């Protein structure tokens, strides 16, 4: 059984179409990165999966159930973002206690261990925490609930670099100890890519790619060199990105296929530099509306 099934999901906010016939399935226990530019529709689809929003049309199933207003889905999933509002009359210790009563797989040892490690004050109120501390506390809720479907929507907002690193490590360690379906949306693919098994790349409310991270790493090749030679070499190839570097040099990213791979040696002989493209840059190029990025504004 698929954990998540989305078929032709569309979501309108009045006249704004935030999701446009989005279809994908996620099966089994894995960590999937939900990647996309600002406004791509990541939060919208994640809130629909968590049952907080209802799709305008299309079919959404979580554990074979429609998630909207569904207590079974609520009890088995958790959605963590930086705008969570938690009861203002409860202390952090009381919130953890309440959560432990609601989530069947709640792990108190993990919650207490993380709480102490991050030096949070049990008598503090959530609304009085700093931005980074709020995200840290929310992350503790998300991990300790050990929900079958765990959704982290930009969970590291406000966290400093050391806390972000600790969070990613804690996420990976706890996932290995207790595998579940985790969705992680992030603008920092370079920071999270080692955690991910799959990447779901969104653009303009649609699915652009849904592939294993290992395939994303092999998806394209970058070529740099003398413009006249490079232009000839990239002809008839699928160019994902192209930018001029100085008067005579050009940088281009081309989609890999067997013909491209066969011609790499020939490109090197012609003096072109060939290198892999990092996943984060590639996602930016793939979801850009222009081939040259910000340079196109100035050209
Ligand atoms: N409540 C709302 N009312 C109107 N439009 C909305 C609402 N929420 C989101 N949108 C619009 O829907 C589109 C998708 O928004 P969404 O928040 O899902 O994107 P996102 O990928 O999470 O963006 P970001 O990376 O900036 O957080 C955007 O154009 C946004 O302006």
Automatic annotation (TrEMBL):
PROSITE patterns according to UniProt: ABC_TRANSPORTER_2
Keywords: ATP-binding, Nucleotide-binding, Transport
SMART domains to which the protein is assigned, alphabetical: AAA
Domain ABC transporter: 4-229
GO molecular function: ATP binding; ATP hydrolysis activity
PANTHER family linked: ABC TRANSPORTER ATP-BINDING PROTEIN ALBC-RELATED
Descriptive protein name: ATP-binding cassette domain-containing protein
Source organism of the structure: Alkalibaculum sporogenes
């Amino acid at each position: 059984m698929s954990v998540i099934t989305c078929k032709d999901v569309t979501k309108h906010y009045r006249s704004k179409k935030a999701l446009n016939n989005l279809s994908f399935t996620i099966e089994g226990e894995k960590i999937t990165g939900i990647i996309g530019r600002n406004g791509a529709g990541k939060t919208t689809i994640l809130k629909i999966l968590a049952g907080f929003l209802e799709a305008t049309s299309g079919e959404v199933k979580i554990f074979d159930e429609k998630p909207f207003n569904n207590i079974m889905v609520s009890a088995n999933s958790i959605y963590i973002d930086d705008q969570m509002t938690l009861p203002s009359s409860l202390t952090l210790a009381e919130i953890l206690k309440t959560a432990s009563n609601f989530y069947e797989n709640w792990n108190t040892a993990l919650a207490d261990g993380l709480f102490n490690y991050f030096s949070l004050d049990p008598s503090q109120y959530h609304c009085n925490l700093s931005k980074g501390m709020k995200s840290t506390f929310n992350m503790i809720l998300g991990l300790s609930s050990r929900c079958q479907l765990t959704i982290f929507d930009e969970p590291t907002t406000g966290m400093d670099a050391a806390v972000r690193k600790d969070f990613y490590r804690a996420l990976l360690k706890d996932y290995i100890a207790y595998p579940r379906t985790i969705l992680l949306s992030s603008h920092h693919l370079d920071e999270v890519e080692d955690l991910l098994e799959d990447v779901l790349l969104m653009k303009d409310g649609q699915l652009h790619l849904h592939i294993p991270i290992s395939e994303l790493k092999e998806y394209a090749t970058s070529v740099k060199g003398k413009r006249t030679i490079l232009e000839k070499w990239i002809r008839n190839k699928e160019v994902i990105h192209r930018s001029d570097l100085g008067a005579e040099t050009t940088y281009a990213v081309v989609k890999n296929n067997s013909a491209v791979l066969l011609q790499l040696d020939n490109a090197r002989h012609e003096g072109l530099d060939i290198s892999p493209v990092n996943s984060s840059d590639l996602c930016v190029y793939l979801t850009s509306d222009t081939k040259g990025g910000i340079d196109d504004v100035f050209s």
